[in-house]
Design brief:
heterotrimer; A mainly alpha (about 290); B mainly alpha (about 375); C alpha/beta (about 325); B: about 375 residues; mainly alpha; two-stranded antiparallel sheet; about 75% helix; globular; C: about 325 residues; alpha/beta; 6-stranded mixed beta sheet; 4-stranded antiparallel beta sheet; 10 strands; about 20% strand
Chain lengths: ~290, ~375, ~325
């Protein structure tokens, strides 16, 4: 039993990383109507910026802040430069545009930052220990930041004008536009936020791996699976999925080491089979 | 049949083409729908023969061969994306799975070449059908997500299971296993090239047939208007699943041919970049055209190894080509969804119209001159 | 013992439902085969089809009795379609609420109502685009009476029910001729293998379908457009393409969703003539939704008026015109 509790604590970092990445994907899905395959590579770009600042001797927190701001800019650039012009493109076309962004970033990142591997230090070294349980300080800080950021976003969605705009755009963009919602602004802010959240996740994850342009692909896949698990219909569903996945994975990996990924994937397929709209989803009836 | 088809396919605002002239045997051959593919196959065989005699370099033939392999995977993807309007990111994973399965069967079982191919393809069809059935029950956009997940898991699976895939260092096929027709031929690089050519031409013909059949029309109908297609008795899951399984099947065949031709595979080959490159090949060439797909595959996979390696800038920045392709596919999706095939078609129509205008003008002049002379 | 009975009953019911679906599927297959025979002009093969269809119908009847579903007998003589307490709720919105009426064989039947009355929803329920919340939709096909709610959306057309759409749903990337050929998709019996290798069986079918499509285009007076891509054609032509596509499968029951939308007066007059001509030539029942009262009063033999999913009145055009409830629904109550 203790082992399971310990495993729950050890999942904190991945829970944070997945939750942040998932939030970005859901925001873009709601406002731009596409699944953003470039979420991972934009996040990796942000993490590269952070790593560069850190190697220059900057403070980690400062470099994190600056790289998040850079990511905001990249997000806005992608939205204004591509998605605002590509409104008439169909859903699959939009998906392909995001895949094109992935290709560009896969090429740009090694050219801009060099092919040498880079790394990012953790927020804090050492562990908190209480009783038999050990929580690395980095994990605890990650969880704290994530909880704060997600709470802020959920509150903003609920109570601010921007949040109302996002929900209106999600339910029907054209009608929202006619009612005076500045959908362009809403979408741009969502892209910026998504890129920023991704960068935050990438920096958190960066301390336990070596940076390369594709290192966030795994996180992105998991974030997508979390979205499917929770259903794209709500904001909280995917986040719940993202918090559930790492814990589940650790528990399965504890019992069957090599097959954990395959089992998780099969579980997700079963969820799609029996609850096509996700665990928290609603049925959508298409109008003919 | 194809003549009829051609007769009825016109751009709006264009006058019907003049009735076809009396067919000579040669003209008849050229008008046959398969003739273009046959000629293409003969040209490819010629490339290899010239390489064997030393006129062309062996490296060139090799890059052509590799491009052809990727063309096969792209051809399947063309059915999926161009005709069914679905995107998948699992192409590389399925290619890898096909290749590894085939290599394992060939090396560890006494089964002959063709049985190994058949078994691997059958297994792939099964897996593709399972994944496709589940993800296509909902919405088209789920397919890309689910296949992306599958492909990531396959890569980690390839890395983890050394007994099957040789782990991270990969698997190498030995020459003694690569025999064909019960040991009558050794599958040297040259023989493999001919097999690839045969497979490609065969699959091109099958694809062309499918496109011009009720199945192809049904796929397009489902892509354009789901409700109309369903009301006309086309099953949504069935037709989409068919396209996905066909794409999987083509990818598997491409993977097997890769194993035969390159003879060594490691998991890093089957990464997300490969799937994206195949996608790019289709978008570039035009998702609804067989020839466009081939041209796209050559541009994405062939150009780099054939020509750009000789230019210092590209040798130093191997990723530059990826940026370029990425920008290109975004531009094409946003501004020119037909790709190069559409471009070529429009250009051809313009040239034809220009020639017709010139001819008409010349005729008028002549007629005018004739009248003037009569007065 | 009681629990055992319950478990047994559960499995028996499941088994019977499974058999029911199985025989329904086979029935559809034989209907398709029969259409294919008609297409290829091979009436000789019909005997086997008829025998198989009769067998399937008998089995389905038996299963229905065992499952305790005797709704089939409710369809009165001479009627082709019956809605029975049809309800369709979207969350809390009651788009259709307990609608019941019958449509007679060979009638031109109109469904009218103010905007948002649930007219198109009725169509979508009949063609199974929506799964009705409650109620049954009975349809007579020869000796066989089907409850359409048992079917999947793509299995409706082999029974001879074909429809057009409110917003034209033509396939832009196909030519007009190919668009119309799509309508005969339910007639094809050749499989994937034949399509891959263009076997003679496919060529035979394609030839027959192409000839038929050209004939239908001529019938609809749009054969001049056969070779053009559907993209960019005038709206009136697109509407006609839709009707031509629906006619490809020799419908017994034709559903037209606002056929006159976006047409001028002359075109509407022509359309009215065309609808009557189609009914006479194809010997089918026509069921249409239309906003243009002139057209409805002109062509329809009987009309049903609905408002907010509930029926207001049913009767001949004269009766409807004189009905107070209908006038109120359209113009608002005079007391206000």
């Amino acid at each position: 039993m203790n082992a399971y509790i310990q495993m729950f604590f050890s999942s904190w970092m991945f829970m944070s990383v997945f939750a942040l990445a998932t939030m970005g994907i859901v925001l873009i899905f709601k406002t731009s109507g596409t699944t953003n395959f470039a979420q991972g590579s934009i996040a990796a770009l942000g993490a590269y910026f952070a790593a560069t600042f850190v190697t220059k001797g900057w403070n980690l927190w400062l470099s994190l802040g600056v790289s998040v701001v850079v990511a905001f800019a990249v997000g806005v650039l992608v939205d204004v430069g591509l998605f605002r012009r590509g409104r008439s493109v169909n859903v699959i076309g939009k998906q392909i545009i995001t895949m094109g962004i992935v290709m560009i970033l896969f090429g740009v990142v090694p050219m801009a930052f060099g092919a040498l591997p880079m790394d990012i230090p953790p927020f804090a070294k050492g562990n908190f220990e209480f009783g038999q349980f050990v929580i690395p300080k980095h994990y605890a800080i990650c969880a704290l930041i994530t909880a704060g950021v997600l709470a802020a976003i959920f509150l903003a969605l609920r109570f601010t004008k921007w949040g109302l705009g996002v929900r209106a755009t999600a339910s029907n963009e054209k009608v929202a536009q006619m009612l005076g919602v500045n959908t362009k602004m809403i979408t741009a802010v969502s892209w910026a936020l998504a890129a920023g959240l991704g960068t935050l996740a990438a920096v958190m994850y960066g301390s336990s791996t070596v940076l390369n342009p594709a290192y966030m692909t795994g996180v992105q896949v998991n974030a997508f699976l979390a979205c499917i698990l929770g259903g794209f219909a709500t904001f909280y569903g995917p986040i719940a999925g993202a918090l559930l996945l790492p814990v589940l994975r650790n528990y399965i990996a504890y019992n069957t080491s090599a097959w954990a990924d395959v089992i998780i994937y099969t579980l997700i397929l079963l969820v799609i089979l029996f609850k096509p709209n996700g665990l928290f989803g609603k049925k959508i009836v298409k109008k003919v | 049949m194809s003549v009829l088809l051609k007769k009825f396919k016109m751009q709006p605002g264009q006058s019907p083409a003049p009735a076809p002239k009396k067919a000579t045997p040669i003209g008849k051959f050229f008008r046959h729908p398969y003739s273009h593919f046959m000629i293409f196959g003969v040209l490819l065989v010629l490339v290899q023969v010239l390489a064997m005699t030393g006129v062309l370099s062996a490296a060139l033939a090799r890059s052509v061969g590799v491009s052809l392999i990727y063309s096969i995977a792209s051809l399947g993807f063309c059915l999926l994306l161009g005709y069914s309007g679905l995107a998948s990111l699992g192409t590389a994973g399925f290619m890898g799975l096909g290749g590894y399965m085939f290599a394992y069967l060939l090396a560890h079982t006494p089964l002959p070449f063709f049985i190994c191919v058949a078994v691997s393809v059958a297994a792939l069809i099964l897996i593709g059908a399972l994944v496709g059935f589940i993800s296509l029950r909902i919405e088209g956009i789920y397919l890309a997500i689910v296949t992306l997940g599958l492909s990531e898991i396959l890569v980690s699976f390839f890395k983890a299971f050394d007994s099957f895939t040789g782990g991270a260092s990969g698997v190498n096929l030995k020459a003694k296993d690569l025999v064909f027709m019960f040991g009558a031929f050794e599958l040297s690089r040259e023989v493999s090239f001919f097999i690839i050519t045969a497979a490609l031409v065969g699959l091109m013909i099958v694809t062309a047939n499918l496109i011009n059949s009720p199945t192809g029309r049904a796929m397009l109908a489902m892509k354009n208007s789901t409700s109309a297609a369903q009301a006309m008795g086309i099953s949504k899951v069935k037709i989409r699943l068919l396209a996905f399984v066909l794409a999987t099947c083509y990818a598997g065949i491409a993977g097997i041919l890769y194993a035969v031709y390159i003879r060594s595979m490691n998991p890093s080959v089957w990464s997300l970049s490969l799937s994206l490159n195949i996608l790019a090949a289709i978008i570039l060439g035009g998702a609804r055209s067989i020839w466009g797909t081939l041209v796209g595959a050559f541009l994405v996979f062939g150009i780099n190894t054939m020509f750009l390696q000789d230019i210092a800038f590209f040798r130093d920045n191997p990723n530059f080509i990826m940026i370029f392709i990425g920008i290109l596919i975004i531009l094409i999706v946003m501004l020119y969804p037909g790709g190069l095939a559409q471009l070529a078609k429009t250009a051809w129509h313009k040239i034809k119209a220009w020639i017709r205008k010139k001819l008409a003008a010349a005729k008028d002049k002549k007629a005018g001159a004739g009248e003037g002379g009569a007065e | 013992m009681k629990a055992w009975r319950a478990i047994e009953g559960f499995f028996v019911k499941r088994y019977r439902l499974f058999l029911f679906d199985l025989y329904n599927g086979r029935l559809i297959r034989w209907y398709r085969q029969k259409k294919n025979n008609a297409l290829l002009n091979a009436p000789r093969r019909d005997e086997k089809c008829d025998a198989q269809i009769a067998k399937c119908v008998a089995r389905i009847k038996l299963l229905k009795q065992k499952l305790g579903r005797a709704e089939d007998e409710q369809l009165s003589e001479g009627a082709v379609l019956r809605l029975d307490g049809l309800c369709m709720y979207f969350g809390g919105v009651k788009a259709v609420d307990g609608l019941s009426f019958e449509i007679g064989q060979g009638e031109i039947f109109g469904l009218i109502g103010p905007n948002g009355a649930g007219k198109t929803t009725v169509f979508n329920c009949i063609t199974q685009f929506y799964e009705p919340t409650r109620g049954s939709i009975l349809y007579r096909n020869g000796a066989d009476v089907q409850n359409l709610t048992d079917l999947k959306v793509h299995n409706v057309i082999p029974l001879g029910i074909s429809r057009t759409f409110q917003n034209v749903e033509t396939i832009w990337e196909l030519t007009v001729l190919e668009n119309v050929m799509i309508g005969a998709h339910a007639n094809f019996m050749t499989g994937l293998f034949a399509h891959m290798f263009h076997l003679p069986a496919l060529k035979r079918e394609e030839r027959a379908i192409r000839a038929k499509a050209l004939k239908v285009l001529e019938y609809m007076d749009i054969s001049a457009y056969a070779g053009f891509y559907a993209y960019g054609l005038p709206y009136g032509v697109l509407k006609k393409i839709e009707i031509a596509r629906a006619l490809m499968c020799d419908p017994q029951f034709l559903i037209l969703d606002e056929p006159a939308a976006g047409m001028n007066e002359a075109e509407t007059k022509e359309l009215a003539r065309m609808i009557k001509r189609i009914r006479d030539d194809y010997r089918c029942t026509v069921f249409l939704v239309e906003h243009d009262m002139g057209l409805v009063m002109d062509v329809c033999e009987r009309i049903c008026a609905i408002s907010f999913g509930k029926m207001l009145a049913i009767g001949t055009p004269k009766e409807i015109q004189g009905n107070k409830a209908v006038v109120e629904a359209y113009l608002g109550s005079s007391d206000e």
